[in-house]
Amino acid sequence: MNNFIEKTFANIKELKVLVVGDVILDAYTYGDVHRISPEAPVPVIQFQKNTYTLGGAANVARNVASLGAKVCVCGVVGADEGCVKLRECLANHDILLPEVFSSSKAKTIEKTRIVIRKQQFCRIDKEDAPEFYELSDEMCQELFAQAEKADLIIVSDYAKGNITEALVARLIEIAKSKNILISIDPKPSRKLDFKGVDLMTPNKSEAYMLAGIKESIHENKNFPAEEICKIINEKYAPENLVITLGADGMLLSKNGKILKTMPTKAKEVFDVSGAGDTVIAMLSLALAAKCDLESSAELGNIAAGIVVGKFGTDITTPSEILAYTL
Questions:
Q1: Do residues 201 and 275 touch, judged by C-beta distance below 8 A?
Q2: Element (H, E) at 20
Q3: Is pTM beyond 0.85 here?
Q4: What are the tens digits of pLDDT across the range 297-325?
Q5: pLDDT tens-digit readout, 108-127
Q6: Structural domains in the chain, sorted by start
Q7: Active site residue 94
Q8: Count of CB atoms within 10 A of residue 235's CB?
Q9: Which one from 22, 26, 157, 277 is the annotated catalytic residue?
């Protein structure tokens, strides 16, 4: 097993990856509480520190970089203080975000978590309406140029406005013409119409939505895996479908047929933030490195099992994955 993993990561180091989607700056404000405010019945937070990291499509790119591949991320950011911090984080991980994607019309999407004694107290979001994040013609030209040079394209939709039907259709067209593997982590609330990606990685709730089935109807019943995989295949025709089931692991399907369910590899669950980003990064990289779906999913499962044991949106590395299998 270790020889296989080492060979896979050696192949991953040779890959050029394009991540397309909603680029987000994740901020954390840490503090402590010792008293209630005299002004209102709310806690007074004694500030300790601020930290910044990558979220959304940028976190997918961070996972790709941590796993050894070269990566470029494309998505609209502002020309503001948030963008400066975001670009600093990207540079720390050797991730390219071309300058053309900075727009004076949009805010850099920023999610600030207020954390008290390792517990999230609340979250403050900064963002504009979806139309502010649609790519300009100049941005699309750069994006498609980057796509043609890639070995792998990952579409990371966080429903902020970067991803449109036309954009996905063109990326699929480029991928098919150049024999590039393309994967997508969809956001079913967008109801985008596309067909023919190599990999889709919805979670359980997203799978229900993609299939047009109300999750509440099945609340106390078994997950209707066969029906959901069949409908998703008819609608979107992904070659590989991996549905993450939380504590129940992963469901693997190929061309609409169920292959197996893998139990979770998580030893301890501390924070599930960003686990989906880790799954699509590891799975996509392994498939692009010529692993089969089952082996790729095994690595994705291990990678997710590691990051959910960490606080906040985090990453894993080849050495951690190797150590996890010992």
A1: no
A2: strand 16-21
A3: yes
A4: 999 999 988 888 776 667 899 999 988 87
A5: 999 999 999 989 999 999 99
A6: 2-25+55-108+130-325 (3.40.1190.20)
A7: no
A8: 14
A9: 277
